[in-house]
Amino acid sequence: GENVEQHPSTLSVQEGDSAVIKCTYSDSASNYFPWYKQELGKGPQLIIDIRSNVGEKKDQRIAVTLNKTAKHFSLHITETQPEDSAVYFCAARYGNQFYFGTGTSLTVIP
Amino acid sequence: NAGVMQNPRHLVRRRGQEARLRCSPMKGHSHVYWYRQLPEEGLKFMVYLQKENIIDESGMPKERFSAEFPKEGPSILRIQQVVRGDSAAYFCASSPQTGKEGYTFGSGTRLTVV
């Protein structure tokens, strides 16, 4: 069935350190996995995505890795900055819709 | 190039009233999705619509909730006889082609039932 698990639920890092958020998905998920960033009072914003035909994708300080065998994908943020503080959601597509993880609240401590 | 437009941003309704939430997708997008986000929780799928068609409403409560996406005008999520448990943020998203890429979300409507 459709299931996306996300860990951790909260994460605090010192400015400049790296942050890693992990998600697992079930067998029936599609081949497309986006990550969203949601700032307080705003809608989720797509920040990076990955398709199953690649294992890693990078965009400046953020990267996503995908392990198809283990059915998990991870978001990596390097050199974190205070403006990275937000809630991050992973998602996987099942049929007509995306199912979202429960979110990770990231706090970057200056 | 306006993004997904939702209005109102904030909506307060008394128990028993009706709430109408509107969503205009991005230009060129013909697929609309509604999600609900309860405090401290993730996004829960409600309904997927194309123009004049409900494609998937598996996430919609069976009673009091309805959605439409008419040929002209915005998509509407309607909640009749609201109860306190309906208080949440309701997000609309749109995409140009289902299954090909991620959604673009609006800023949401925060419904408070008093």
Written account of the structure:
Chain A is 0% helix and 59% strand. Chain A has strands at 4-7, 10-14, 19-25, 32-38, 45-51, 56-59, 62-67, 72-77, 86-94, 97-100, 104-109. In chain A, the strands form two sheets. In chain A, strands 2, 4, 5, 9, 10 and 11 form a six-stranded mixed β-sheet that branches. In chain A, strand 9 and strand 10 (97-100) form a beta hairpin. The mean pLDDT of chain A is 92. Chain B is mainly β. Chain B is built from no helices and eleven strands. The termini of chain B are far apart. The mean pLDDT of chain B is 92.
What descriptive keywords fit this protein?
heterodimer; A: 110 residues; mainly beta; six-stranded mixed β-sheet; five-stranded antiparallel β-sheet; 11 strands; B: 114 residues; seven-stranded mixed β-sheet; four-stranded antiparallel β-sheet; 0% helix; globular
Order of helices and strands of chain A: EEEEEEEEEEE
Gyration radius of chain B, in Å = 13 Å
Shape label of chain B:
globular
Helix and strand run of chain B: EEEEEEEEEEE
The tally of beta strands of chain A, per DSSP, is 11
Supply Rg of chain A: 13 Å
Helix content of chain A: under 10%
Biggest sheet statistics of chain B:
7 strands, mixed
Helix amount of chain B, in percent?
under 10%
Alpha-carbon distance between the termini of chain B? Answer: 36 Å
Gist?
Chain A is 0% helix and 59% strand. Chain A is mostly beta strands and 110 residues long.
How are the SSEs placed, and which strands pair?
The complex is a heterodimer of chains A (110) and B (114).
Chain A: E1 4-7, E2 10-14, E3 19-25, E4 32-38, E5 45-51, E6 56-59, E7 62-67, E8 72-77, E9 86-94, E10 97-100, E11 104-109
Parallel strand pairs in A: 2-11
Antiparallel strand pairs in A: 1-3, 3-8, 4-5, 4-9, 6-7, 7-8, 9-10, 9-11
Chain B: E1 5-7, E2 10-13, E3 19-24, E4 31-37, E5 43-50, E6 53-56, E7 65-68, E8 75-79, E9 88-95, E10 104-105, E11 109-113
Parallel strand pairs in B: 2-11
Antiparallel strand pairs in B: 1-3, 3-8, 4-5, 4-9, 5-6, 7-8, 9-10, 9-11
